[in-house]
Amino acid sequence: MSVHIQLKLFANLREFAPADTDRHPIESGQSIREVLASIGLPAEKAKLIFVNGTKGDLDTVLEGGERVGLFPPVAGG
């Protein structure tokens, strides 16, 4: 069944953003890893993953309606 998520990509990950990030269609039960593959974003580039404000990972399963934030590796000192 097709549902939607809100997909927010930050910093240099924005280049992989699909046309409608506020209503990105997914299949219920897809993992973050599968969503990344569908938009052409290599999984190793998404170092921080948040789902509804809680830390997630590549194997987090989405049902639809979630807010997903993806961040690249953060450098700093």
Overall 3D shape = globular
**Helical stretch count?**
1
**Sheet having the most strands:** 5 strands, mixed
Low-confidence stretches: none
Task: State the strand order across the main sheet.
Answer: 2-1-5-3-4
Decide which structural class fits the backbone: mainly beta
Q: Write down how many β-strands occur, each being a DSSP E stretch of 2 or more residues.
A: 5
Terminal CA distance: 45 Å
Mean pLDDT: 94
Element layout with pairings:
Blueprint: E1 2-9, E2 24-27, H1 32-39, E3 48-51, E4 54-55, E5 67-71
Parallel strand pairs: 1-5
Antiparallel strand pairs: 1-2, 3-4, 3-5
Describe the fold and architecture:
This protein has 77 residues and is mainly beta. Helix content is 10%, strand content 30%. The chain is built from 1 helix and 5 strands; from the N terminus they run ββαβββ. It has one helix at 32-39, and strands spanning 2-9, 24-27, 48-51, 54-55, 67-71. Strands 2-1-5-3-4 form a 5-stranded mixed β-sheet, with no helix packed on it. The chain is globular, with a radius of gyration of 12 Å. It starts with a strand and ends in a 6-residue tail after the last strand. The mean pLDDT is 94.
Short note summarizing the structure:
By secondary structure, this protein is mainly beta.
Task: For the structure shown, list the relevant keywords.
five-stranded mixed beta sheet, 30% strand, mainly beta, 1 helix, 77 residues
